């Protein structure tokens, strides 16, 4: 798959994809005889992982460390697992914050709905 096809499929820019490769968020992508990037299924899996993790707020540095450990082989399985656990904890904290915000919004909306029925706006 070409860089253009990957970018279109995942709605990202070529600059983003090149950046991910340059800093190590994804492993180095193979090239064609002409020097163009040629994304394999494995490369696409790495791209999907990077997009997913970044959209969840996982820091670039953590993804770089994960790829570095992956390249070192099976002796790093526990370290990789621990990184994923750390990412999960961070995502769960964000989910909890979002849920608190959602609860507050739902409460405020319910107050407005009640006010629309009764003509009286109360907050507590």
SSE inventory with pairings:
Blueprint: H1 3-10, H2 14-23, H3 41-55, H4 60-72, H5 77-118
Helix pairs in contact: 4-5
Biggest sheet overview: none
Distance between the termini: 57 Å
Q: Structural class from helices and strands?
A: mainly alpha
Q: Return the string of H and E elements.
A: HHHHH
Mean pLDDT: 95
Helix content: over 70%
Anisotropy-based shape: elongated
Number of strands: 0
> What is the number of independent domains?
1
Give a description of the structure.
- The protein has helices at 3-10, 14-23, 41-55, 60-72, 77-118.
- The chain has 124 residues and is mainly alpha-helical.
- Helix 4 packs antiparallel against helix 5 (77-118).
- The chain starts with a helix and ends in a 6-residue tail after the last helix.
- It is built from 5 helices and no strands.
- It has a single domain, classed as Multidrug-efflux Transporter Regulator, Chain: A, Domain 2, CATH 1.10.1660.10.
Relevant terms:
Multidrug-efflux Transporter Regulator, Chain: A, Domain 2, elongated, single chain, 124 residues, mainly alpha, 0% strand
Summarize the structure.
By secondary structure, the chain is mostly helical. It contains five helices and no strands. The longest helix has 42 residues, at 77-118.
């Amino acid at each position: 798959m070409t860089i253009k096809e990957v970018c279109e499929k995942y709605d990202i820019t070529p600059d983003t994809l090149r950046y991910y490769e340059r800093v190590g968020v994804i492993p180095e992508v193979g090239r064609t005889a002409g020097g163009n990037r040629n994304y394999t299924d494995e490369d696409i899996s790495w791209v999907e992982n990077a997009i997913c993790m970044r959209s969840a707020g996982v820091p670039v540095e953590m993804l770089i460390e994960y790829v570095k450990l992956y390249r070192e082989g099976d002796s790093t399985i526990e370290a990789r697992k621990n990184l994923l656990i750390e990412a999960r904890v961070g995502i769960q904290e964000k989910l909890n914050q979002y849920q608190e915000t959602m609860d507050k919004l739902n409460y405020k909306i319910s107050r407005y709905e009640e006010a629309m029925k009764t003509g009286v706006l109360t907050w507590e």
